[in-house]
Design brief:
By secondary structure, this protein is of the alpha+beta class. Helices cover 48% and strands 12% of the residues. It folds into two domains: 102 residues, 2-Layer Sandwich (Phosphorylase Kinase, domain 1), CATH 3.30.200; 293 residues, Aminoglycoside phosphotransferase (APH), C-terminal lobe (Aminoglycoside 3'-phosphotransferase, Chain: A, domain 2, Alpha-Beta Complex). The protein has a five-stranded antiparallel sheet, with helices on both faces. It has a three-stranded antiparallel sheet with strand order 8-10-11. The chain has a two-stranded antiparallel sheet with strand order 4-5. A hairpin with a 4-residue loop joins β10 and β11. α5 packs parallel to α11, α10 packs antiparallel against α11 and α14 runs antiparallel to α15. The chain binds 5-S-methyl-5-thio-alpha-D-ribofuranose and magnesium ion (MG).
C-alpha cells in the first residue's frame, strides 16, 4: 500500500530492490541484493517483519503498515509509530545496554527500522506454551524494568531533558489510544471488537457488575494517561520478549509512552500469570513443577527489580526528585522514602496486572496461551480463574503484601472452579 507522502509497503519481492544501497543492511547481509533471501514473518497485530538473509548474515526489517494488520484497512493507524519505536529503542539501549536488538538503520518516511536478527532466539510466549525454561529470565527482565523506570524518570534525568522528552513522545497519540480502549475500557462493556470464550458469561457478568472494580480500573487509566513518571515500553508481554535457553532480549516498544513506573512490570506479571493458568491444557506430568517455575520467575523479577532500583537510588539519584539535599546531606537516610516509592510501584503493578489479565480474555487481541486451547470447554474454566484473580488484584492491590502473597493467590485460584 502506497501513500501520497511516498511511503510504500515492502513485500518479500520488492525489498531487495527497494533497500539496495542501504549500507548497514549490506554490511550485515551482503552487498548484492540478488543474493538476499527475504521472508515476511510478522505474526504480530500491526506490522510487516522481514528476515533478510545473505552471504554475510541476516537482519530484520520491520515496517509499520498504515492500518492495524489484525483488523485490516478499516482501522487506519499512523505510520509515525515507527519514529517513536526507534526513539524508544535508542533510549532502552542507553539505559539498559544489551537488552534490546541493535539498530542498524531508520527510515522515517518508509516507517521502517532495520535491526539485529536475534538468532536462535524465539518468542518467549511460544517457549512458555511449550514448557521451556529460560535461565536468567527473571534477572534480565527485573533489570530492564528497574533501569528503564529509574533512568527514564526525574529520579535520574535532568528535568529539562525529561520534560522535552515527554513533549516528544506526547505526539504518539493513536497508539496509547489503543491501550486506553482495548486494555482499560473494552473488557468492561459490550464493545464492538470484543470476543470471549463461550461459557464465561457468569464471570463476565460479575466483572461488569462490579462498579467498585470498574472505578479502580478507570482510576488506573487516569494514571496511565496523565502520569509521566517514566518512559514505558508500553507493551511488555511475553510476545515482546525473545529468548534462547539462556539469553533474553526485549523487542517491539512501539507502544512507548510516558506513564506510571508500575505499568511495564505489571503487564509482564500478568503474562506470566496467564501462562501459569493456561498450563493445565499444555502440560502433562511436569505441570506442577513448570507452574512453580513460572511463579519463581515472577518472584525473581520483582526481587531483581527492587534490588536494582535500590542500587540506582543509592548511586544514580541525580534528578530533582528526592534529592540528597533533603536526606543524606542532612545525615538522614532516604530508605523509607525509597520504600514508599517502591510500594507505590508494586500497588500500581498489581492493579495493571489484573487489568491485563482481563483484556487478554475479553477484548480484541487475545493471547496464544489461552487461544491455542482448542476445546472451549477446557479453555473457559482456565480463563475464568485468570479473570477472577484479575478482579481480586484490581480490588486488593493495596493489601497484597508481596510476591509470596501473590503466588499464594495464584495457587489458590488455580485450584478453584469459578464457573
Ligand atoms: C490492535 S493492536 C492489539 C494489541 O497488539 C499489541 O501488541 C498491543 O498489545 C495491543 O493492545
Ligand atoms: Mg507488539
Amino acid at each position: 500500500m502506497a501513500t501520497e507522502d511516498g511511503y510504500d509497503a515492502l513485500s518479500a519481492e520488492t525489498l531487495g530492490d527497494r533497500l539496495a544501497g542501504v549500507g548497514r543492511l549490506e554490511e550485515h547481509v551482503g552487498p548484492d541484493p540478488s543474493q538476499w533471501q527475504v521472508r515476511e514473518v510478522g505474526d504480530g497485530n500491526l506490522n510487516l517483519v522481514f528476515i533478510v538473509e545473505g552471504p554475510n548474515g541476516a537482519a530484520i526489517v520491520k515496517q509499520a503498515l498504515p492500518y492495524v494488520r489484525l483488523v485490516g484497512d478499516s482501522w487506519p493507524l499512523p505510520l509515525y509509530r515507527a519514529f517513536y519505536e526507534y526513539h524508544a529503542l535508542t533510549r532502552q539501549a542507553e539505559r539498559d545496554p544489551g537488552s534490546v536488538p541493535e539498530i542498524y538503520h531508520f527510515d522515517e518516511a518508509q516507517a521502517l527500522i532495520i535491526m539485529e536478527f536475534l538468532s536462535p532466539h524465539t518468542i518467549l510466549r511460544r517457549k512458555l506454551i511449550s514448557g521451556e525454561k529460560v535461565d536468567g529470565l527473571a534477572e534480565r527482565l527485573g533489570l530492564f524494568c528497574a533501569r528503564t523506570a529509574f533512568r527514564g524518570s526525574e529520579l535520574s534525568m535532568a528535568s529539562a531533558r525529561k520534560k522535552a522528552d515527554v513533549g516528544l513522545f506526547s505526539g504518539n497519540v493513536e497508539i496509547p489510544a489503543i491501550t486506553e480502549a482495548l486494555v482499560f475500557t473494552d473488557p468492561y462493556f459490550d464493545a464492538e471488537m470484543n470476543n470471549h470464550t463461550a461459557g464465561l458469561a457468569p464471570v463476565i457478568a460479575t466483572l461488569r457488575g462490579d462498579t467498585r472494580m470498574k472505578a479502580k480500573v478507570q482510576r488506573m487509566l487516569m494514571k496511565f494517561a496523565s502520569n509521566t513518571e517514566t518512559l514505558l515500553h508500553g507493551d511488555l508481554h511475553s510476545g515482546s520478549i525473545m529468548a534462547t535457553g539462556s539469553e533474553t532480549k526485549i523487542i517491539d516498544p512501539e507502544f512507548v509512552q510516558y506513564g506510571p513506573m508500575g505499568f511495564d512490570i505489571g503487564m509482564l506479571t500478568a503474562n506470566y500469570l496467564m501462562a501459569y493458568f493456561s498450563q493445565p491444557a499444555h502440560r502433562g506430568g511436569d505441570l506442577e513443577s513448570y507452574q512453580e517455575w513460572l511463579l519463581e520467575v515472577i518472584v525473581g523479577t520483582f526481587a531483581t527489580f527492587e534490588a536494582e532500583f535500590a542500587r540506582l537510588w543509592r548511586e544514580e539519584r541525580t534528578g530533582m526528585l528526592y534529592p540528597a539535599a533533603l536526606f543524606e546531606d542532612q545525615g538522614q537516610p532516604s530508605d523509607e522514602a525509597r520504600d514508599a516509592v517502591l510500594r507505590n510501584i508494586w500497588e500500581d503493578a498489581m492493579a495493571i496486572c489484573g487489568i491485563e489479565m482481563h483484556r487478554r480474555c475479553l477484548s480484541l487481541a487475545h493471547n496464544a496461551d489461552f487461544e491455542e486451547i482448542e476445546d472451549a470447554a477446557l479453555r473457559a474454566p482456565l480463563e475464568a480463574r485468570n479473570l477472577m484473580m484479575g478482579r481480586d488484584l484490581i480490588l486488593n492491590a493495596e493489601t497484597i503484601a508481596d510476591t509470596a502473597a501473590l503466588c499464594d493467590m495464584a495457587r489458590a485460584y488455580n485450584g478453584k472452579d469459578m464457573l
